[in-house]
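Q: Could you write out the predicted structure for this multi-component system? I'm mainly interested in how the pieces pack against one another.
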Amino acid sequence: MTLAHPLANRLVPAATVLAAALVLASCSPAATSSDTSTDAGTPVTGGTLVYASGDAEPTCLDPHVGGNYPQALVASQYLETLYTKDADGKLIPWLAEDSTVSDDGLTRTVKIRDGIKFTDGTALDAAAVKTNFEHLLNPETASSTGYLALGKIDSMDAVDATTLELKLKTPDNSLLESFSMPWVAIESPTALKRTQAENCASPVGTGPFKVESWKKQDSVNLVRNADYVLPVSTAAHAGTAYLDAITWRFIPEAATRYAALQAGEVQVIDNAQPDAIAAAGKVSTIKHLDAPRPGASNRIELNSSKAPFNDAKVREAFIHAVNVKASIDSLFFGTAPQSFSALSSVEPLAYSEESLFGYDAAKAGKLLDAAGWSNRDSEGYRVKDGTRLSLTFPVSTSQSIPAEQSLFEQMQATAKESGIEIKINLLDLSSWYGDLAKNDYDLVSAPYTKVGPSVLSVLFSSASTIPAPSGYFANHSQVKDPALDALLETAGSTKDEAERKDLYTQVQKKVLEGYYVLPLYDQQNHFLYSDKLKNVGATTAVATPTFFDTWLAN
Amino acid sequence: MSILEPALPSVDPVLNPHTARKARPGGTFARQIAAHIPWVVSTAVLLFFVLAAIAPNLLAPVDPLAINPSEAFSAPGAGHLLGTDESGRDIYSRIVHGSRASLLIGAAATGIGLSLALVLGTIAGFGGRWLDFGVGRILEVLFALPGLLLALVFIALAGPGVATTVIAVGLTTAPGYARMIRAQIIALRTSPMVEAATVLGRSRTRILTTHILPNALAPIAVLATLGLGQAILWAASLSFLGLGAPPPAPEWGTMLSAGRTYLVLAWWMTLFPGLAIVLVAAAATVLSRSLKSRGPR
């Protein structure tokens, strides 16, 4: 402000006071409502639910192929899993009846439920499940999520019609949790024999709905499975789904999606943005379902493999130099509580440590001075040996919602005050993967959804720094600590639940205290729906909604 | 308002002061003032934004990048004249500080477009039948493709950023100008003045430099003013698509794009940057028309 006018200078304090008064006057806490209770009234059969997704349209409707969240959302309507989570978050058998593991932990026996048929008439049995696992492990399927989840299976054998025996390479106590994910859902072995293109267009499962047609670039049409058999009678009703059909549309633009819901053109939208959720809170005809995803929290990972973050003091300083709380409060309208954990708050074994994270510019300054970053250049950024304290931050515009991008911009502005430069590069997904593969990043935010604490192994073991054949690796903080690896190894194989909890807590402590991650909030997963839609709220283990119990009021 | 001249002379006294004067030789003082209003207003608007571009701190002393999460989404009012955005940044300050980027992009792109057009137009208009034919076909091919598509292809090849935006917009606008310059030069080439010079035995180069180009330049200056508004609009469109200045830069198109997310909640985030773009583009167009009707025939 070298050219600042004296009059203007005098006006600024006055303006600031006025602004503050204005803000105080207009400030009211954003209302959030989450209605997952059973609605009163007699369920009505019939009607078509129109669902508008903000995600990109999947290229394949079979979540075995690749395996991302948009696939899981739609596939949860027509595919079912061996295990699932009940309303209390407890893991329960679904298409499976039971499962036992040998004393050495190397043999797992899965009992498959009898009397269930796929929508093409094929019966569900142990051989069908075996075919599915083989399909997932076959490199030609190009599965990534499901492939990783079943990675410890060495061989399998359908002993009889309802018994599947799995031989494991090493004990894996997360296998049942893995079975609950839609990426490992069970499909008709008859349908799987078709070409991949055919199976991608109309996967066949046991779910309450089936794929009728898929008009690409427009919608997927699902119709009621008239022969549906509910594996476990825990839900409010038996028999088939109330809804005749579901039209699954794709509306990428958030404001358009919300407008379509307001106009009654669609009844459910996903990827609801914070401002829309806040606005919907004031409208009685729109309801809100908040279903945080399991697995990792949404966090920023600090790349410890190179300068400046190979110095733990600089990592600690960075975490204190940014004011995450203020940004979350203003940008998310109370829809996203701040997280202090590497794991999602829905994970029973999540360990949270708030005292490590807090905005403290003075502390950041002291830490940076001590780490040798005491000089400043002409622009006010810290320098050491002629190098500016500059952090490269590739941001994927398809993975970070606008509010999150604004949060990163605010971090950039606040970090500057402590002399840290953040260079935000807004990128499309493939360029973003490219920068990660080239190790051209200091900060990165990447979602990772998985059921159970074993996600910690994916994110923090040394092995995860080695890129998969696709070039992707999940350990973005690139922590390589033999002690941590040993803890993860034992935590993932022990049969003792208490020991598992204790070991995973130690792992999380090490990660948080090493300042490898800056947790932000849970992976946001908000749905808004019309109040004409009753009994919404049931979700799968990965928090994708299911509409078996849902009915549409006239 | 169409960018293209109407086919028939306008009878609107505001749009065409010449006809106004001819039709009413004894026009009152009030009428004369009325005829000048668009010119005065558009000049004032442009002067404001030029001043904003040269000395933004004079008009808006608040740092356009300073965040204040607790003041996010403040409505327009006494504290923040045009409200604040999602990070509590002052919209008025961002628009004023964004003038430089927008005007520079507009001016530089117009400069590039016109320079390229001058070369192409001169070759076509003065280079003889075959060159005219060749350049003419190239221009027609470029005309067949939508301008924005051309700009997008160029950005896809060269990567997004301010410099690429400037070149992309410049390249995209060049064919239109080249055609107009060619027509201008052909008209001058067959004028009595040039015929006289030819009879006197002047060389082609001399005719081009002393007679044709100086006379062609005045209308080009008018074109440049017209093009400025257009180029600013193009640049804002590209920034809106995320291909121009990256956030948090206070570029108008980028601001418009950011505001779109919060259209229902905070309309001022979209309205005011949009208004700035419209004002500058409209002012440049009105000024250019006004200059054209006053300029040498």
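A: Regarding packing and overall arrangement: The first helix of chain B runs from residue 17 to 23.
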